[in-house]
Amino acid sequence: MQRYKYLIVGGGMSADAAVRGIRELDTEGPIGLVGEESHPPYARPPLSKKLWRGAPLESVWRGTQDLEVTLHAGRRAVGLDTVRREVRDDRGETYGFERLLLATGVTPRRLPFGAEDLVYFRTLDDYRRVRALADEGRRFAVLGGGFIGAELAAALASSGCRVTMLFPEQGIGSRIFPAGLSSSLGDAYRERGVVVWAGETVAAMRRDRSGLVLRTRSGRDVPADAVVAGIGVIPNTELADRADLPVNDGIVVDELLRAGHPDVFAAGDVASFHSVVLGRRMRVEHEDNALATGRQAGRNMAGAAEPYTHLPFFYSDLFDSGYEAVGEVDNRLSTVEHWQEPYRKGVVYYLRDGAVRGVLLWNVWDQVDAARRLIAEPRTWRAAELRERLPERP
Ligand SMILES: Cc1cc2nc3c(=O)[nH]c(=O)nc-3n(C[C@H](O)[C@H](O)[C@H](O)COP(=O)(O)OP(=O)(O)OC[C@H]3O[C@@H](n4cnc5c(N)ncnc54)[C@H](O)[C@@H]3O)c2cc1C
After folding, report:
1. Most buried of 145, 243, 246, 284, CB within 10 angstroms?
2. Could you tell me what percent of the chain has a pLDDT over 70?
3. Do 115 and 220 fall within a single domain?
4. Test site for ligand 1: of 20, 44, 228, most ligand atoms within 8 A of the Cβ
């Protein structure tokens, strides 16, 4: 059995950030990292963005190995004993720890059909598979109009592929964007040749001589050579479940990111934390949170005892538009929209009972901290007051 002062399960972005957090305070303590993928930690956002615009594949690596870490790649942790302080992997190897971090991320939701013909886009290997198909100029069906579906459809269409999008919602990103913005985004996709079927889901898939055929619930047949899905994710909580750690839509952590045990921590997409600013529990599936919780968990594993108070932001690029968003960006809240150019450049404020809970910055840059300050202000706002707030003048 190998023993580590710090053991990290999950070889993703949060795991890498945790290694860096530990090394800020402890340059020597042995760190072991057990990760299911065969690769060292890498950045996921480029898989649906930069790599399609010509960035080299090597640009995704995080360089975790340079930080005195023993990497156990291609190993899935399947057992956790918090009393003996041991983790067991799928080959029967055990790893002892003094402090443990669970940074196991999420797994894509699956459909009850399609099996091998469907790519659930999440990993570097998924990117390689889809890229090889795209380079052959295939016809793609993209299932899902949320974050991943929207980015992938844009990346594939920009690479010259024929793309059909299918999703059950009213419009692209309509769970977070106001109706006008979502509708204008749909027009932008159609102008670039994407066929957009909103309000439509796939009921079955079959293969015929010309390729795959997707049968929709309304009875439409959509032909494709390849099908990529981004239809949501499920947090990887199995290890925590088995060890009786608290789980409720993610591994429940306290303000120090401890998962119901003084020496077991959780971070990244899998962790459910209490947001000090928003006054509610949340689980965030985005980079800034993965990096910030990872770093903080790492520092706390190394003895810092600092609470996690960060309000994370997220971002995306869709053709020639981009956005950054902070807080509760949820279309069920009331919104105030302020467009400098209609649906091209502007700010959307999301309010509950008059208080700002979230801000969407559409092609508006360098305003994330100002948006955080606005959300933290303990007051209510009238629509006219908000129109003057962002962008903040330097
Ligand atoms: C294609 C794509 C594009 C994205 N673009 C953006 C973006 O533009 N902006 C943004 O803010 N966010 C983006 N994200 C989200 C961001 O990448 C995630 O929030 C981040 O990767 C989460 O980091 P994590 O370490 O928690 O999980 P992950 O990076 O998913 O890493 C978890 C790792 O743990 C491994 N693992 C799971 N269970 C076990 C186990 N039992 N044993 C061993 N290993 C295990 C998994 O195989 C995986 O490698 C994107 C995500 C994807 C997939």
Report:
1. 145
2. 99
3. yes
4. 44
Give tens-digit pLDDT for 38-79.
999 999 999 999 999 999 999 999 999 999 999 999 999 999
* Whole-number Å distance between alpha carbons of 275 and 287: 16
pTM above 0.90, yes or no: yes
Indicate whether 245 and 222 sit together in one domain: no
Residue 316 CB less than 6 A away from ligand 1? yes
Tens-digit pLDDT profile for residues 270-322: 999 999 999 999 999 999 999 999 999 999 999 999 999 999 999 999 999 99
Could you tell me the distance, in angstroms and rounded to a whole number, from the CA of residue 70 to the centre of ligand 1?
20
Q: Which domain holds residue 356?
A: 320-387
For residue 393, pLDDT beyond 70: no
Q: Is residue 309 part of a domain?
A: no
R_g of the chain computed on alpha carbons: 22
Residue at 311 is within a domain? no
Indicate which atom in ligand 1 lies nearest the CA of residue 122: 53
Q: Is residue 369 part of a domain?
A: yes
**Among 195, 229, 263, residue at a domain's last position:** 229
Q: Which of 242, 237, 239, 264 is nearest to 100 (CA)?
A: 264
Is 134 found in the same domain as 78?
no
HSE, CB side, 13 Å, CA atoms: give it for residue 33: 29
152 to 37, 188, 193, 316, 347: CA distances (angstroms): 22, 15, 14, 11, 24
For residues 242 and 93, state if they share a domain: yes
Q: What is the pLDDT of residues 141-153, one digit of tens each?
A: 999 999 999 999 9
Q: Rounded to whole angstroms, what are the CA distances from 252 to 90, 207, 240, 245?
A: 25, 43, 10, 8
CB 105 within 8 A of CB 15: no
Q: Whose CA is nearest to atom 53 of ligand 1?
A: 122
Residue-level pLDDT at 189: 98
Task: Please state the domain count of the chain.
Answer: 3
Same domain, residue pair 151 and 239:
no
- d(CA 352, CA 136) in angstroms, rounded, equals 48
- Domain containing residue 250: CATH number: 3.50.50.60
Counting ligand 1 atoms within 8 A of each CB, the residue from 287, 288, 310 with the most, and so the one to mutate, is: 287
